[in-house]
Amino acid sequence: PRGEGAPGTAAPAPRCWYRGALREPGTRWMEPGCRSCACQGGRVLCEAVSCPVPCSHPLPAPAGGCCPSCTGEPRQPPALRPNTGPPLTLLWFAGCLHEGVARAEGDVFSPSDGNCTVCVCLAGNVSCISPECPLGSCPSASPLDCCSCQPAKCSFRGRTYMHGARFSLDEDDCTTCVCRGGEVECSFAPCPALDCPQHQRHLRPGQCCFTCRDPPRPSGCFVDDNGVEFPVGQIWSPGDPCELCICQADGSVSCKRTDCVETCPYPIHIPGQCCPDCSAGCTYMGQIFYNNETFPSLLDPCLSCICLVR
């Protein structure tokens, strides 16, 4: 409810009623879930708490808190309180959280991977320093000495290569070299085994290994074990007059049978010919008679027959 003041005076700011509690104007309080609320003009305004983190490895928020901490609250230890003058205020640093482990302020430690790296926690920040080791050979590696084994670089034909680097010899892809502890080792590229005779092997430009030449194209077709060869395009009959074969360009033989479509009542079968001939004559009682030829009937000697091709 609004209060009524004296005439000519401003009415007091209204208070807020929030969750069963009366809040004065301008007051702020925290709600669960890290929400900051304030009473303004009779209304409650809440917003999520913003947590700017000014360090790289802050500690998690303490119980009941919302924001991770890089530094603590300003404190004045009783033992350091002076007798006279203004009070001396000291800033207490919380520490650092590194790889899931809480480190105290000023703590010096090594990371889990080791590698002779030293880290320090300062004001919520973790700074790490790795040792710089001079180049040298690696006769033996000792886990207690950080600089016992630092592989040396390789100087080869006017160029410097790091340890483990691989390169080709004089831009020749057939030879591969590697730098190992200051020494260069070169080897030829492995080649597969070939199953062709020596005279059929050749080295193509830009290749490292020999390859087999392609077999020459056949000039004809071999059709039997006697070495009989037909030239490409030759057509012949393999013994059956109804079947014709042709020699293909790749040395293979293609054969096809002939279909006889012409029919007549008395066809003539000519030796060496596939289909019966109906235009040359007639076949009667196993005998062949030509067109317009007359002959006595074998069934009745009084009858005379004639071959007529129609």
Automatic annotation (TrEMBL):
Main location: secreted
Segments forming domain VWFC: 14-71, 94-155, 152-213, 219-279
Species, as recorded: Asarcornis scutulata
SUPFAM superfamilies linked to this entry: FnI-like domain
One biological process term in Gene Ontology: cellular response to virus
Protein name: VWCE protein
Cellular component aspect of the GO annotation: cytoplasm; extracellular region
InterPro entries hit by this protein: vWF_C/EGF_Fibrillin, VWF_dom
